[in-house]
Specification:
disordered C terminus; 69% helix; 0% strand
Length: 285
Amino acid sequence: MKTIVITLFLAAFIFIASFNSTYASNPDRLYKKGQYKEALSAYEKLDIENPKDISYRYNKGCAAYQLKDYKTAQSAFASVYQRAKDNNMRFKAAYNLGDTAFQAGDMQSAASFYKEALRMNPQSADARYNLELSLKKIKEDEEKKKQQQQNQQDNKNQEMKDKNKQNQQDKNNKGTDQQKTQQDQKQQDKNGNDNQNKQSGQQQGQDRNKQQQHQQPQNLSGELKAINPAQQNKEGKDEPDRQQAKSPDKVKAEALLGNIQEDRSRFLQHQAPENNQAPKSGKYW
């Protein structure tokens, strides 16, 4: 994978001989030895003491960049880019701003700064290479972002699909439970109706038996027989019995009257005959 070409240019300047501080007298030596933190402190002190000399500020940005303090580096390079009157210094500041933005992950700003550097120095191969690299990175980031959005949409659709499927399954289960409950209720109702009908049939049978018992006439008269042989008519033939349909009340009355008369006949039968007269048979009414 291609990597960005990092080119940091240290500004050349003449140190003031009156500086007694070790860091202030030779910060470039600290920078070259890789002592970026000490070099940054020395450049900051020189920048404060010499505000009109932008070379100290520029070198402070380079030391901050090496320490990955991109915010401090960007602030220093931007100030140099605005204040520099030398086109070469502006080119270096723009180029370093591109590198700082690239390392910070801001590809749009990096591409803009590289384009500005190429505008001031079209022959810079490093600036052109880094511009192409930043543009490629922008395209990759856009495709990656689209893919992430598509994945999120697919996940959302899948979640919605799973949710709808679960809801449908719950609905089906609920419908099945309701149907089962209804079937159970119908079966219970049917069993209850069968039991009720059975009990009602039994009750109706008992009622019919009782009704038949009440409606069936009872023969309370018994078999009435005359104490003496039956009286014959004048032709010597038995008088035919006349049977007629009688009501239950009439049957009861006749039976009761017959019993009374039968008892009376028996009573008279056991009495001593008066005047030696033979007992007479037949009814006395």
